[in-house]
C-alpha cells in the first residue's frame, strides 16, 4: 500500500469512475478517490488520492474551478452537450452581432440562480437525475445559487463561442451554456469542455495516465502537498502522543508561537520532517488543545 495524490489529466471519452478503476488496477491500490468528478465528454484536471491520502479529500479546497468551454448556437440536446439527442434547432443566431454576444455572455458574471441539467448525478427521490433522464423522464429541478467569479470571451466565430470561466463548486457549465443560449433567444449546446483548474490542481502541473504507467507511484504528490494548511512541528519526545492520536498542548511544539484560530486545521510534522497528521486547534473547558484529527503514520 502506498499513499499519494495525482493531478491527472483526464482525457475525453472516459468517466471519472472508469479512470480511477483503471488507475487502481495499474498501481495495484484498492483505496482511491477523486476530488471532483468530470463529465465523460470533458477533459481536464482530476485530483485522485490513493491509500491514506484519501483522508485528505475533505480538506482539499475545491471552492473554485476554472474551465475553457466552446458552445454552438442554434442547437440543443437533451444532455446539453454532444452526447445527447438533438431536441431543438434554429437559426435565430444569424442576426446576432459580436457586441450582443459579448453583452449576453458577460452578464452571467457574479452570483446567480442556476437550474442543474437533467443529465447530472444529483438525487431526486432516491434516484440520480441521469437515471431518470435515460428513461425519458424530466422532473422539475430546484435552482441553486452559484457564482461565476470571472468570465473571459476567447473567441466569437458564430455560431461558435469560446470562453473561460472561473466558477464556484456546484456550477454546471452545461447549464451556463443553456442559459447563454436563452439570453440570446436561441438554443445552445456545449461542444467542448476543458477543466484547467480544480482547487489546488492546475492544468500546467497535471500528468497523464501514460506518465503514471511509465513512472508508477514515484510520480505521485505526497499526501500533504496539495493541502493549503498551516504547518507546525512537534517535539521528538511527543511523537508517540501524535502517533496515538492524543491531544497536544502548546509546550509540545517546536514553535513558540502557535497562531491558529479555534477550529482551524493544520499539518503536523515531526522534527525530521515526517508528515504525521492533520490536526485541529480546539478549546475544551477554556483550555487550548491541538487534537490530531487524521493520523497518517
Task: Tell me about this structure.
The protein has 297 residues and is an alpha+beta fold. It has three domains: 4-62 and 200-219, Pseudouridine synthase; 64-197, Pseudouridine synthase (2-Layer Sandwich), CATH 3.30.2350; 231-295, Roll (Archaeosine Trna-guanine Transglycosylase, Chain: A, domain 4). Helix content is 17%, strand content 36%. It has six helices and 17 strands. It has helices spanning 16-27, 98-106, 129-134, 173-183, 209-215, 239-243, and strands at residues 4-10, 32-34, 43-50, 64-73, 75-77, 86-89, 110-114, 123-124, 127-128, 144-157, 160-168, 188-198, 201-202, 231-233, 265-269, 275-284, 287-295. Strands 1, 2, 3, 4, 7, 10, 11, 12 and 13 form a nine-stranded mixed β-sheet that branches. Helix 6 (239-243) links the parallel strand 14 and strand 15. The chain is elongated, with a radius of gyration of 23 Å. The model has no long low-confidence stretch (mean pLDDT 92). Residues 24-173 form the Pseudouridine synthase II N-terminal domain. Pfam families: TruB_C_2, TruB_N.
Describe the structure using short key phrases:
Archaeosine Trna-guanine Transglycosylase, Chain: A, domain 4; 3 domains; Pseudouridine synthase; 297 residues; 17 strands; tRNA pseudouridine(55) synthase activity; TruB_C; tRNA pseudouridine synthase B; single chain; 17% helix; tRNA_psdUridine_synth_TruB
Number of domains: 3
Order of helical and strand elements = EHEEEEEHEEEHEEHEEHEHEEE
**Number of DSSP strand runs:** 17
Structural class: alpha+beta
Radius of gyration: 23 Å
Strand content: 35-45%
Q: Helical element count?
A: 6
Question: Superfamily at the CATH H level of the largest domain?
Answer: Pseudouridine synthase
CATH architecture of the largest domain: 2-Layer Sandwich
CATH class of the largest domain reads Alpha Beta
Low-confidence stretches: none
CATH topology of the largest domain: Pseudouridine synthase
This entry's quaternary arrangement is single chain
Helicity, as a percent range: 10-25%
Largest sheet: 9 strands, mixed
Q: Distance between termini? A: 13 Å
Overall pLDDT score: 92
Shape: elongated
Amino acid at each position: 500500500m502506498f499513499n499519494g495524490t495525482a493531478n491527472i489529466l483526464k482525457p475525453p471519452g472516459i468517466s471519472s469512475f472508469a479512470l480511477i478503476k483503471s488507475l487502481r488496477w495499474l498501481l495495484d491500490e484498492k483505496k482511491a478517490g477523486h476530488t471532483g468528478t468530470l463529465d465523460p465528454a470533458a477533459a481536464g484536471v482530476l485530483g485522485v488520492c490513493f491509500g491514506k491520502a484519501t483522508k485528505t479529500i475533505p480538506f482539499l479546497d475545491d471552492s473554485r474551478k476554472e474551465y475553457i468551454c466552446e458552445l454552438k448556437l442554434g442547437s440543443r440536446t437533451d444532455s446539453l452537450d454532444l452526447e445527447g439527442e438533438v431536441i431543438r434547432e434554429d437559426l435565430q443566431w444569424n442576426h446576432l452581432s459580436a457586441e450582443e454576444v459579448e453583452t449576453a455572455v458577460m452578464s452571467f458574471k457574479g452570483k446567480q440562480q442556476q437550474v442543474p441539467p437533467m443529465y447530472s448525478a444529483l438525487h431526486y427521490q432516491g434516484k440520480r437525475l441521469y437515471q431518470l433522464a435515460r428513461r425519458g423522464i424530466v422532473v422539475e429541478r430546484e435552482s441553486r445559487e452559484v457564482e461565476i467569479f470571472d468570465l473571459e470571451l476567447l473567441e466569437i466565430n458564430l455560431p461558435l463561442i469560446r470562453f473561460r470561466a472561473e466558477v464556484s463548486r456546484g456550477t454546471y457549465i452545461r447549464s451556463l451554456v443553456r442559459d447563454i443560449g436563452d439570453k440570446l433567444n436561441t438554443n445552445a449546446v456545449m461542444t467542448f469542455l476543458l477543466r484547467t483548474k480544480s482547487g489546488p490542481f492546475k492544468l500546467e502541473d497535471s500528468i497523464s495516465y501514460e506518465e503514471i504507467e511509465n513512472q508508477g507511484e514515484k510520480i505521485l504528490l505526497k499526501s500533504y502537498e496539495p493541502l493549503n494548511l498551516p504547518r507546525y512541528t512537534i517535539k521528538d519526545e511527543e511523537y508517540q502522543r501524535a502517533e496515538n492520536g492524543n491531544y497536544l498542548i502548546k509546550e509540545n511544539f517546536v514553535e513558540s508561537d502557535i497562531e491558529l484560530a479555534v477550529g482551524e486545521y493544520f499539518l503536523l510534522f515531526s522534527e525530521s520532517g515526517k508528515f504525521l497528521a492533520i490536526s485541529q486547534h480546539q478549546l475544551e473547558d477554556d483550555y487550548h488543545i491541538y487534537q490530531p484529527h487524521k493520523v497518517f503514520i
